[in-house]
Amino acid sequence: MIAIIDYDAGNLKSVVNALNYIGKEAIITRDKDVLLGADKVILPGVGNFGDAINKLKHYRLVDLIKEIAARKTPFLGICLGMQLLFERSDESDGIEGLSLLKGEILRIPDSEGLKIPHMGWNSLSINPDKKLYKGIPDGSYVYFVHSYYLKAGDENDVAASTFYSTLIHASVEKDNIFGCQFHPEKSGDVGLEILKNFAAL
Predict the structure, then answer these.
(1) 185 is catalytic
(2) How far apart are CA 50 and CA 39, in angstroms?
(3) Longest Cα pair distance anywhere in the chain, in angstroms?
(4) What's the half-sphere exposure (Cβ side, CA atoms, 13 Å) at 164?
(5) Which of the residues 79, 91, 146, 173 is marked catalytic?
(6) Which among 91, 173, 185, 193 is annotated as catalytic?
(7) Digitized pLDDT (tens) for each residue of the chain, 201 residues in all
(8) What is the CATH number of the domain that holds 40?
(9) Is 79 part of the annotated catalytic residue set?
(10) Any residues with CB less than 8 A from the CB of 26 and at least 6 apart, and which?
């Protein structure tokens, strides 16, 4: 069973629908026992970095997420959920992220002819050694909606990258921790394959 963390940060139903579509049982919850007992856990999210951290604190989920990660349960952050895995964000000065991985979240720099937020399909430059991208061709397109991007602290953690005004670390993978800046649940067949790979871990 895949547990999706509910902390009032966006539409979680689309993630459930995508998982159900590939034949996986998923539950939206913030119950400690359910989350600790899950085979895999997903942290989605849209919105503001600082607000999201405060909501996680409000629901007493910060230490719980760290415990899940320490237990080596496969853990996937999506969009804002991926950004929260890191140490800090330009979006919310002085607010510490979950710090499960090293890196920072920066604002996408202004560039003539490019709109921010970045909304749309971009191709991925994929590290073929990463489990999340097994069988997925380099250059595959996925769907993004974001104004801030990851600069990973360790290049070895980067599973896929893209370019939009700057080099964007679009996906990460280290041990049992995974992240996608894009929305796999909105990325067609490619996104479903990524979710299948995560579910198969």
Answers:
(1) yes
(2) 28
(3) 49
(4) 29
(5) 79
(6) 185
(7) 999 999 998 779 999 999 999 999 999 999 999 999 999 999 999 999 999 999 999 999 999 999 999 999 999 999 999 999 999 999 999 999 999 999 999 999 999 999 999 999 999 999 999 999 999 999 999 999 999 999 999 999 999 999 999 999 999 999 999 999 999 999 999 999 999 999 999
(8) 3.40.50.880
(9) yes
(10) 1, 2, 3, 4, 15, 16, 19, 20, 42
Helices and strands (DSSP H and E) totals, the chain: 6, 13
**Burial 50-73, CB ≥16 within 10 A → b, else e:** ebbbebbeeeebbebbeebbeeeb
Kindly name the residue from 118, 146, 169, 183 that is annotated as catalytic: 183
Domain that holds residue 97: 2-199
Total domains in the chain come to 1
